[in-house]
Known about the structure:
Strand content: 15-25%
Number of strands: 18
Number of helices: 15
CATH superfamily of the largest domain: Choline/Carnitine o-acyltransferase, domain 2
CATH class of the largest domain: Alpha Beta
CATH topology of the largest domain: Chloramphenicol Acetyltransferase
Structural class: alpha+beta
Strand order of the largest sheet: 11-7-6-8-9-10-1-16
Shape: globular
CATH architecture of the largest domain: 2-Layer Sandwich
Helix content: 25-40%
Number of domains: 2
Radius of gyration: 25 Å
Amino acid sequence: MVTGFGSFQDFDRPVSQARRAAETVRYTCEYLERLKLEQVPPETMGGNVLCMNMFRRLFSTCRIPERPTDRFKRVDPASVRFITVCCEGRVFVLRVYDEEDELLTIGDLEVQLLHILRHSAYLNSLPATKRAGLDDEGLPQFVGALTAMKRGKWAEARQALVEFDQLNERSLHKIETSLFTVCLESASPATPSELARQCAASNAGNRWFDKSFQYIVFGNGMVGANMEHANADATVLQSMFRWLGERYLNRNGGYETFIESRHHSLEFLPPPELLRWRLPHEITSNVIPTALGDFERDGSKLRMVVVRNKTFGKSKLRAEKLFPDTFVQMGIQLAGFRVFRRAVPTYESGHTRMFVEGRTETIRTVTTEVLAWLQMQDQPGADEAEVVEKLKRAMARHKELSLAALSGNGIDRHLLGLQIAAMQKTGSPPALFTDPSYAKSGGGGNFVLSTSNVSGYPWLWGGFVPMLPHGIGICYGCENDFLSFMITSFDPSDRDQQVPGPPGAQLPRVTAPEFQRALFQAFEDIYALVERNFDTEAEKPAARI
């Protein structure tokens, strides 16, 4: 299953975990109210209105594991009045609307979340013999770890839960139909990179990865999110997170947010409900421990760098007539050429929301024009004027392919549709999709460099893992005064047998920190080349989308 993850940064003042979680819940529910009232304006690009249908499935949506394929369980969020909260491996149901159908205040939500934290701490403090007498309800059974398993195994485990006891089916239904999930964590990540890594791959027993999105709030008040990507794309979640970030940093939003509790007493607030389970012995003794161990093992291999390059930003790049996205993509290509010693297949995501139900298309950055520039860029004694000319052509070609992808004229989704249609009709893929050259071009999920531009949200960092064990994931944002990056890789010590190619022709193993250093050097070199040779008064932008 493919997930995305992200974290919020640059909070000007720390707050407690319960208060941060309460703010997060309240502001997200405000956004839901805006959606229900159709107060979220349609998004546009170049004067074209974008499809907004994915917004309809942000809330009360869950991916359900089944054979032969998963399905989505969706209910009308207007009929749901609660969220789910994961804490210490337990799941609680928290009502977010009062009896008058008004959103709870931040103060009320903080009271309820403190109750969850304290109740979990109390249960943890009990001797094991006493906990065993609580009819299983107090045990942190980490059922959420099942959602981290391979989909077929999770489908079998879920079916076993449903068949074993109706109590399990009720608990599953509550989680799956809840508006969204909040995960309360005791850890306190100290750096942006550690915060992002915790959001990506930690504590599977305290998650429900099938939910459309789940917030992760840490002991020091930092917050991030984990998103199920098959349900919706990053452009949609970004819009909601932008609202959330603005509310964090400036509470003067469209709704009056009451901070203090109206009730001041749990007498008026029914306590959150602790969901109960009755689990088969095989699930508790074998399946869940295995799921926890596998996730911990795989998650420990993830390497991540979260960093800003304050030397460059949109303002500085545009002063040199450079389009920021093209500049970053050329930097990625030069860095990749240097560390891998060859051009490698590269994926850049582009959306197709100018069309009804549009999702994404691939912008293929590696072209003959890019390769011609790369082969000359670092060549000793190369004619600099010729290098500049080749760079311009590479940038112009990137612009053409970007526009083609955004306007529905890319090739990858078309090929995917043909492959699926052929598989459904014949049961086997056509020869094109099994040809080695198709994989070498990145087809079939074989892109060594996987990239995505998430600009316009300076306090938000997004990311994803690489497509391949030996690949690199690069999520970046182009802001006025800096470029932000979340770069991911896997531990090279685990990849000796997984790097493709015959002996002597394998790709070098590259880590996220190594690629980040090469990338920033590439930016310096490209900018210096441009600064020396571009006539900023006479020339038009080399590439603009």
